[in-house]
Write a structure and sequence with these properties.
Elements lengths: L2 E12 L5 E9 L4 E5 L28 H15 L3 E2 L2 H12 L9 H19 L3 H9 L7 E8 L12 E5 L6 H21 L19 H14 L10 E5 L6 E2 L2 E4 L2 E3 L1 H14 L2 E5 L9 H9 L4 E4 L7 H9 L5 E4 L1 H4 L2 H14 L2 E5 L9 H9 L3 E3 L6 H16 L10
Helix pairs in contact: 1-3, 2-3, 3-4, 4-12, 5-6, 7-8, 9-11, 12-13
This protein binds 2-phosphoglycolic acid and zinc ion (ZN).
Length: about 425
C-alpha cells in the first residue's frame, strides 16, 4: 500500500467557541480527497504540544491561525507533495522531522495534527478500510465500541459559574450496548434540565454542552445528578449509570493549595474530600484530581484511592509517551486521558496508548473544549478498543457528531463488542 500526496490545503475556520482553527484537505494522486478539523483546548496542560496562534490582537483577539495555515499550505505542502508514503506513520515521521522541535512549536501543533489526522484518513481510503478498522490494524488492537462519558454539568474554565470542578459526566457502565448508553445519557440530560429549571436555575450551557448552573459545591451537583438519574428511571451506580469527575485541579490550584468552593485545601485534604465523595456518591472515575505539577500528591492519591476508582491523568500526562513512562514507574494514577492534539500526531498517540495498555493503565479518548464537526475520535476509540470516550454533553452538534458516528458504527458492525473491557 502506498499513497502519493498531490496537494495539501488548510483553511482558517471556526471552532465551537467562535475561535479560529484549521480545516485541512489532503488530495492524493488518485484523486481521493480527505479532510480533518483541528480541536483546541482551554484548560490545557503546560507540557502539551504547542498550538500556533497569530498573536495579532486586531484579528480574533490574537487567536487567528493564519501562520499555522500558511505553514500547511507552504512548507508542509512543499515537503510532502509529490511524495509516495507507505503509511500514515511515514507522513507523521516526515512531519516530526520537518518541525524539528519536541513540542511542534515551530510549525504549530495545530498545523501538524491537522495533517496527521488527514494522513490517517488517506491511509484508510487507500486500503479501502473504514477508519476505525484501519487504525486498529495500524495499532494492532482489538476493536470495540467505547462507553460514552457525557459531560452534563460544566464548571471551571468551561463555564462562567463559580463551580470549581470542571466536568461532571454520566457514565452508563451498565448499559448493554452503545445505543442504549447514548439513550441513557440523553434521557438523564433531559431530566437534569427539568430539575434545574424546577429549582429556578438557569439552564444555559457551558463550552462542552453541559448545564452551567450557579452552584459552587461539587457535592450539590452530584446530589442533583443522582436525582436526575433516578428521575429518568435508571439506577445510580456501576450497574446502571455511574458518574465520572474531571475536577481539572490544575485550574484551581493556587500557590497555597487548592481552592474549592471558597475553601483552601492541601493535597491531603482534597484527597480526603474525594474519599468522602466516593463514599457518598456513585463516582467511578476521577480525572486530574490533583494538579499537573503535584507529583508528590499524585502517588499518595493513587495509593489511597486506586482500588476504588479510576484515577485518570490528563494535564499531568498530556498523552506524552515519555511522561507516561515516568508516571507508570512512579505509580501515578491508573488511567490516561488521550488527546491527539496534546502530542500532535496519530502515531505518537497510538504509542502513548500502547504504553498504557502494556502497563495495565485504562484509557479514555477525549475531545477538546473547542471542537469541530470532525468525528475522528469516535473511530480512534473504536479502533483501539480502549473502552472509554468523552465528547461532552449529548447536545450541540460538534459533541453529538462523535456520539452519532459511534451509533452509525454500532449499526453498521453489530458484531463490535461494547464496554470498558470489550
Ligand atoms: P480542554 O479541557 O479541552 O479545555 O483542555 C478538557 C479536559 O480537561 O479534559
Ligand atoms: Zn481533563
Amino acid at each position: 500500500m502506498t499513497f502519493r500526496i498531490s496537494d495539501l490545503e488548510a483553511l482558517e475556520v471556526l471552532d465551537s467557541r467562535a475561535r479560529p482553527t484549521l480545516a485541512v484537505t489532503m488530495t492524493l494522486a488518485d484523486g481521493t480527497r480527505v479532510h480533518a478539523g483541528v480541536p483546541s483546548g482551554a484548560s490545557t496542560g503546560s507540557r502539551e504540544a504547542v498550538e500556533l496562534r497569530d498573536g495579532r490582537p486586531e484579528r480574533f483577539g490574537g487567536q487567528g491561525v493564519l501562520t499555522a495555515v500558511a505553514h500547511v499550505n507552504g512548507e508542509i505542502a512543499t515537503a510532502l507533495s509529490g511524495r509516495a508514503f507507505g503509511s500514515a506513520a511515514d507522513v507523521d515521521a516526515a512531519l516530526m522531522e520537518l518541525d524539528g522541535t519536541a513540542t511542534k512549536e515551530r510549525l504549530g501543533a495545530n498545523a501538524v495534527v491537522g495533517v496527521s489526522l488527514a494522513a490517517a484518513r488517506a491511509e484508510s481510503a487507500t486500503t479501502g478500510k473504514d477508519l476505525w478498522r484501519s487504525l486498529a490494524d495500524v495499532a494492532g488492537t482489538t476493536p470495540g465500541l467505547p462507553v460514552p462519558h457525557f459531560n452534563v454539568v460544566n464548571g471551571g474554565a468551561h463555564a462562567s459559574n463559580d463551580l470549581d470542578f470542571q466536568e461532571f459526566m454520566l457514565a452508563p457502565l451498565g448499559a448493554p450496548d452503545l445505543p442504549q448508553a447514548v439513550r441513557a445519557g440523553a434521557e438523564v440530560y433531559g431530566r437534569l434540565r427539568t430539575r434545574l429549571a424546577s429549582q429556578g436555575h438557569p439552564t444555559g450551557l457551558g463550552d462542552e454542552g453541559g448545564f452551567a448552573p450557579p452552584i459552587d459545591r461539587p457535592e450539590d451537583v452530584l446530589a442533583l445528578l443522582v436525582e436526575a438519574i433516578k428521575d429518568a428511571g435508571y439506577t445510580p451506580g456501576r450497574d446502571g449509570i455511574a458518574i465520572a469527575l474531571d475536577p481539572a485541579a490544575s485550574e484551581f490550584a493556587t500557590g497555597d493549595g487548592y481552592r474549592v468552593a471558597g475553601e483552601l485545601l492541601t493535597s491531603t485534604q482534597l484527597i480526603d474530600r474525594y474519599e468522602e465523595i466516593i463514599e457518598r456518591f456513585p463516582v467511578w472515575s476521577i480525572e486530574d484530581g490533583l494538579a499537573e505539577d503535584d507529583w508528590d500528591g499524585w502517588p499518595t492519591m493513587t495509593a489511597r484511592l486506586s482500588e476504588r476508582v479510576q484515577l485518570m491523568g490528563d494535564d499531568i500526562f498530556v498523552t506524552n509517551p515519555g511522561i507516561l513512562t515516568q508516571a507508570i514507574q512512579r505509580e501515578v494514577g491508573n488511567a490516561a486521558l488521550i488527546k491527539v492534539n496534546q502530542i500532535g500526531t496519530v502515531t505518537e498517540t497510538l504509542q502513548a496508548m500502547r504504553i498504557c495498555r502494556e502497563a495495565g493503565y485504562a484509557q479514555m479518548i477525549s475531545h477538546r473544549s473547542g471542537e469541530t464537526e470532525d468525528a475522528f475520535i469516535a473511530d480512534l476509540a473504536t479502533g483501539t478498543g480502549c473502552g472509554q470516550i468523552k465528547s461532552g454533553a449529548p447536545a450541540r452538534g460538534e459533541r453529538v457528531a462523535k456520539y452519532n458516528r459511534l451509533l452509525a458504527l454500532a449499526a453498521a458492525s453489530p458484531d463490535l463488542p461494547y464496554g470498558i473491557h470489550p
